[in-house]
From TrEMBL:
The keyword Transferase does not apply. Binds 1 Mn(2+) or Fe(2+) ion per subunit. Binds 1 zinc ion per subunit. This is Zinc-specific metallo-regulatory protein. Belongs to the Fur family. PANTHER family: FERRIC UPTAKE REGULATION PROTEIN, ZINC UPTAKE REGULATION PROTEIN. GO terms for biological process: negative regulation of DNA-templated transcription; regulation of secondary metabolite biosynthetic process. Fe cation binds at residues 87, 125. It comes from Sporomusa termitida. Its cofactor is Mn(2+); Fe(2+); Zn(2+). It holds the Pfam family FUR. InterPro entries: FUR (IPR002481), Fur_C (IPR043135), WH-like_DNA-bd_sf (IPR036388), WH_DNA-bd_sf (IPR036390). The keyword rRNA-binding does not apply. CDD domains: Fur_like. Gene3D superfamilies: 3.30.1490.190, Winged helix-like DNA-binding domain superfamily/Winged helix DNA-binding domain (1.10.10.10).
């Protein structure tokens, strides 16, 4: 928690009580947490908090690199994970929405150099692999 607060302050953001409970909800929410799950957790302390506010706080945390957002394309919406593992990518099941972390980055230096061809400077990238997990492949 202290690390988060320091990171927020370092980038000039206030650590409001609402922001604090969003972070707490992510920390206790398990590996992948949906915005809805965060909302349910924060409403125990702030019953008037809206899903919009949760999303705004989550986007901020994603922007400053404390949280990863995984686009699951599922009914539940994107899931969020605490960015402890450093830069990495995910596989996402199109049927059940389950996400898994990959411990490697398949993007190579030379790919980035090619993408920067037109004078564009790349500072970050994100990438998800979509398909069907082992369990869904068996039942499907
Ligand atoms: Zn699945
Ligand atoms: Zn991950
Ligand atoms: Zn990568």
């Amino acid at each position: 928690m202290e690390k988060w607060i320091a990171a927020l302050r370092a980038q000039g953001f206030k650590v409001t009580p609402q922001r604090r409970v969003v972070i707490e909800a992510l920390q206790t929410g398990g590996k992948f947490t949906t915005a809805q799950q965060v909302l349910e957790a924060v409403r125990q302390k702030f019953p008037e908090m809206s899903l919009d506010t949760v999303y705004r706080n989550l986007s901020l945390l994603v922007e400053i690199g404390l949280v990863h957002e995984v686009r699951t394309k599922g009914r539940e919406g994107n899931v969020f994970e605490i960015a402890v593992a450093g830069h990495h990518h995910h596989t996402v099941c199109l049927q059940c929405g389950k996400a898994e972390c990959l411990d490697f980055c398949p993007i190579h230096e030379q790919d980035l150099a090619r993408a920067e061809g037109g004078g564009f400077k790349i500072t970050a990238h994100s990438l998800e692999f979509y398909g069907y997990c082992a369990a869904c492949r068996q039942t499907g």
